[in-house]
Fold:
Amino acid sequence: MAGFFREVARRVFSQELKDSNLASRDENDQYAPQYVLTPTGAKVNRIFLVGTLIEKEDIGTDSEYWRGRISDPTGSFLVYAGQYQPEASQFLADCELPVFVAVVGKTSTYTTDDGNVLTSIRPESIQQVDELTRDLWVLDTAKQTLERIRAVEAGEDPNSKLAKEHYFTDTDSYRVMVKKALESLKESEY
Amino acid sequence: MRQSADSIRSRFLKFGIDVPIEDIESRLEELVANFKVPSNEAQRSVTNYFLKKYSIPKNEFYVRQAEPQLTKIADFSENGQWTNLKAKVIQLWENTHDSISQVGLLGDETGIIKFTEWKNAELPKLEQGESYLFRSVVIGEYNGRFQVQLNRNSSVEKLAEVIDVIGGDFTPIARESELRNISNLLGGQWATVKGKVIQLWENSHESIEQAGLLGDPTGVIKFTNWVSSEIPYLEEGKNYVLKNVFVNEWGGKFQIQLSRSSSVEELDEDIPVGTSTLNYFGAMGDIQTGSGLIKRCPECKRALIKGVCAEHGKVKGEYDLRIKAVLDSGISTQDVLINRELTEELVGLSLDSAIAMAADALDSGVVLDKLKHELLGRYYNVSGHKFDRYILANSITPMTSLNGELIEEMLAELEVD
Structure:
C-alpha cells in the first residue's frame, strides 16, 4: 500500500464551503486530486456532512441526474448524483423529504461566467441517519472549525496562512457561525 | 624419466595395481621425446591412460592422492581450502535451489557451520542427528561467513561415534530456542513463542500453508507457516506454543517463520493479547469490498474469490461475516477489521439471517448494502490492536450522546470573544 493514502473527509459547515473559492490542483498531473481551500484553512477533497435533506430534483435531461439540498445550522449544501453514483441516485429517487442524511463525497468547483466559484458535492455514499448523528456531526464540525479558526489566528500552519492571505479571513464572523451552530444543539436535549 | 615413472607406479600401487614400469616409461618417453609434451603434462596424460585402463574413477584416485587434513570447524581459515571434517548434522533446512540436494548445519566440538551439498555430488542423504566423516569438502565463503561445500569430489562416511557439538547437543528436537515475548523478538534469531492465533489471512502463494497474526500480551506479529514445515493447520482463536521459529525482518517489520525445524503444540490456557490496545474515534466513511457475507475455504479459512481458494482451488466455502471499515476523524483515517461476532452484535444481524437474506435476494450484495445502510455516516469508538494499517477491533460502540461539557466549554470560549 505504499504511496496510497485515503483523503480524509473534512468537516466544514455549509456557510464556510459556500465562501470558498480557492481551488488548487497540481497542474502537472491530471490525476492529482483537486482541493478546495476554505477560509479557515481546511484543504478539502473529500467531505463528510450530516444534515437535513430538504429538497430534491431530477435535473437530468437524457438520464436521471439528481440534485439534493442538505441544510445544516449555517446554510445548505448542494449534492449532485447521476449515473456514475447509482447508489446515491437511487437513494435520492426513493427517499421521502425531509430526512436526516449522512453524506461522504468529493467536492468539485465550478467557475461561472461572471467569476463566481461554486462548490458542489458528488456523493460516494448517502444514508439516512438519526437526529443524534446529525447533532454529533454539528458538534464535531463546530469543534474542528474552531480549531482551524484558532490556527488561522495563530498563523502557523501553512494552510491557515494561505487561507488568511487569500481570504483576509475575518475569524470573528466564523466564531459567530460556530456559536450559532452550537446554540442550535442546546435546543435539542443532551 | 625414470623418476617420474617410479612416482606414477607407486601411486597405482596404493590402489593395488602393479603397472609394469616399462609400460609407464615407454609412454612417457614417447610423449616427451617424440611429441614435445612437457614433462608434467606427460605424467598426467599417462596417469589418466592407466586410470582408464584399470577402470579407476578419477576423483577417487586424486582424492586419495591428496588426502586433506582432518580439520576442526573453528580452524577453517581459508576460502577454497580442501578439508576433511568429522561433524554431526544438527539441522537440515529447507532446500531452496534445484541444484542443491541438501543444506543445513554441521557441528563439532569447536563450532557450527552451514553446509551445502550439491546435487551433482551424488552423495547419500544425510540424516539429522547423525555424525559423519566428510572427506574432501571445500570451504567457501559467502556473505563473510565460511561454509562447507560437498561436491563431486567429496565423500561421506557415517560414523558410529557421536560427535560432540559445541554448547551441548544443539539438535533442535533436543534443545529448544529461548522462549520470548513477541515484543522482544529480533530479526535473524531463533525463538520459541507462546501466543494466540488472532487472525488467519488469505494468501496466494502455493508454498505457504498459512499466514496470519499471532498475539501475546506484549504484541502482535505476522507468522508464515510454510507448506514444507509439515505443521498442521493452526486455528484462529486457539493458543499455541511455537517452538524453534525463525524471526526475520521484512519491510521494516519482524515476522516469524515456521519451518521444518519448528514444532507446534496447542495450549489449554487462554493467552490474553496485547496490552497496547488502540482507541480511535470517527465517523464510518467507507465499507470496503470484501465486507459483508463472504465465503471462506474450509481448510485454510482464506476468503474465497468467486468460489475459488487461492490455495485449494474450487471448494465448498463456509459462510462468514466481516467488515473492512474506514473510520474517519476529519483529521486522519483508520482502517478497521471487524470480525463476525462484533458485526453480528453491531448490526443486529446473525450470520444465519444474513445467509437467509442473501438466499432470498439471490445476491450476497444485499448484506453489504444492509451494513452500509446501518453503519455509514455514524460515529463510532473502536478499540483493538493495531496491525499494519488496520485496527483489529475488540470492541466497536456507537456514540449514544452528545458531550455537553464540550459544548459548554466551546460556547464559553466563544462568549468571551
